[in-house]
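Page header: ASSEMBLY MODEL / two components / 462 residues total.
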Amino acid sequence: MADPVSSAGPRGTLCEPFLRELGVSGAAISTIGGIQHPETLCASDGVAGHVDEAQLDLGEGPCWDAVAANDWVDAPHFADDSETRWPAFRDAVRETVRQHSVGGLFAFPLSVGGLRVGTVDLYRREGGELSRTVKDDAEQLGAAAARQVLRLSLELLGQADDDDDPRPRAIIHQATGMVLAQLDVTPDEALLLLRGRAFADGQKLREIARDVIDGKIDFALEERNLG
Amino acid sequence: MDATRESEVIRTMIRLADTLVAGYDIVELLQGLAERCGELLGASATGILLADRSGRLEVVAASNESSDLLEVLQLAAGDGPCIECYRRGEAVSVPDITALDRWGPFRQAAQEQGYRSVYAFPMRLRQTTIGSLNLFQEQAGPLDRGDAETAQALADMATIGILQARTLEEASQLSAQLQHALNSRVVIEQAKGFVAYRRGISMPEAFELIRRRARETRQPLSELARQIVSRQIEF
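Prediction written out in full:
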């Protein structure tokens, strides 16, 4: 079984609210489907870590499907024979699931302003569906986590700031202000979002800023379209 | 300089000195100064630029917020007379923009906006240059000596304004003082973007709206901008 992923530092605190608020047995967050190379950012315990890592290694599992569907993917009776999705993934985690009597696995995607940044997977000892209330709460926690994931991703990518243009940055500040009017984020997060979008689109920060000012990119619209 | 002009200049200086004693918003002070340059020196447009930590020049005030002027200023600050003035620490005169054989993008944009000459004056503190005050004219030809001296005096006043504009808890280092002025401008730009999006108006219109509200409510421009951006007030 994989060792628990570090629970210290900013990454360690990422998973903690999910555990505390949702009454699940474990949670992990990865950058599957996000702007950077997929990796596990946090796992609340060894089981969650192993479940997440196995999906990363194999390229299949609820997290990948959640990204593709842009929605929750539920395996409420993961250990049952009736569960036939992801044969390689189920093989890889069979022993862990048996030992720790994992009942249900659930995954949903994370995004900020229509920009995909990663996925959350949750497990519970007991089987059965997650209630709509629990899912709503999870999505709310996910919105906060998504901003931190975006920040981490940009840090991991070494994308401090790609704007080495000698011209003034007024255009970037104006675009940041527009994002503030579009989404409930801080100025710092708005700038991160612009940078994340620039990275994802392979464009300069300045080009994205121009598109925002010209109304070609509207993060509020994109969030609605994705959601 | 004729007598009327001289008394105008003196009045401006006195007003500036008053603000410096009374406490003020740095962006507003520079904004006022940029606007007065048009009246005092017959400049068609004026822009005040300050260098950030990386040596990049940022616009802190402009006589008008039209995107055309800001575009020309951007180019002049990236590769043009403003950055040259800042780097050399001395005034740079371009009496005929059409005759320039360098700074192609700047030359073209300036001409398109109808500017024929530009004069950049350094904002200096002893050995350090912190930015530049830049005058654009619609006519070609050199600036007369009196005008040049007045412009340099105004640039010096602006420098003093920036160096004095600090709250007690802030560090007294030059870099912190510069950062204070630049940060104020960053928040104003963000507030412009915010208001422009919410109201579906242009950046210059948004700036005018924010400025008018600041005057009506007797608040410093940058303080109002901060409240807009942090959603403490509806705008």
